Amino acid sequence: MTTNLPTSRAFITSLFAQLSRLSLPTSGTLSSNLLNDALPETKNLFLTLHCLFPNELLPALDLLDRQLVTRLVISCPPLDTTSGQEGNGDNVIYYVRSSQPTRGSRYTAAGGSSYEVRLRAWNCNCPAFTFSVVNAMEENYGHKEDDVDVDEGDGGAIDAEPVSTLGGLMFEQEAVPLCKHLLACFLPEKCRALSGFVEEKVVGWEEAAGWAAGWGD
């Protein structure tokens, strides 16, 4: 009798799915450690995630604890006011401020830079994610220059819908690139108790363009 074991990506996705069904204590201030008083099953789940992501989980939780994650909800205007057609709905982009202070220059403000995170496209513009993509490509394809299958989704909308799967729409292969910034944004999407550590702003396209240019708060 053979046992059909889930793939590693399916197993990890199921772990994150369990976060949405767990409850963390909400009493106290945001600076308190929610995991101290969590149920044993919750602690065991986070310990399992720490074993799977030893280099990303704790730094991601640290970013949330220091409230360095901003969730931009972009309010889309109507595409055609004459026909009454509406836009794609609210779109979501995350910005994560660097935890490492940098020296200010005429182009960057002192205090650190910000990284743009797209959960649906599963992308972060930090250097660590770039190296993770290279490692994932080598693990998935070896050194062959095969094409990468990309789910085109709904024609290029930003993050119009909540992301439920690790890796978003980008990869169908087992190895999924990851960095602490992506994980810091993905965790609150799966665990609502962590959403209180994320600053949320509703902005228009003009202000969103300013954030993309590095002029955000």
Structure explained in plain terms:
- With 217 residues, the protein is of the alpha+beta class.
- The protein has six helices and five strands.
- It has a five-stranded mixed sheet with strand order 4-3-2-1-5.
- The radius of gyration is 19 Å and the shape is globular.
- The N and C termini lie far apart (59 Å).
Number of helices: 6
Content of β-strand: 5-15%
Largest sheet geometry: 5 strands, mixed
The low-confidence runs, each spanning 5 or more residues with pLDDT under 50, are 79-89, 105-111, 153-161
User: Count of DSSP E strands?
Assistant: 5
Structural class: alpha+beta
Order of helices and strands: HHHEEEEHHEH
Mean pLDDT across the residues is 75
Portion of residues within helices = 25-40%
Shape: globular
Radius of gyration (CA) equals 19 Å
Amino-to-carboxy terminus distance: 59 Å
Strand order of the largest sheet: 4-3-2-1-5
What's the structural blueprint in terms of helices and strands?
Elements (H helix, E strand, L loop, with lengths): L7 H12 L20 H13 L4 H9 L3 E6 L16 E7 L16 E5 L4 E2 L2 H15 L38 H11 L8 E5 L1 H8 L5
Parallel strand pairs: 1-5
Antiparallel strand pairs: 1-2, 2-3, 3-4
Helix pairs in contact: 1-2, 3-5
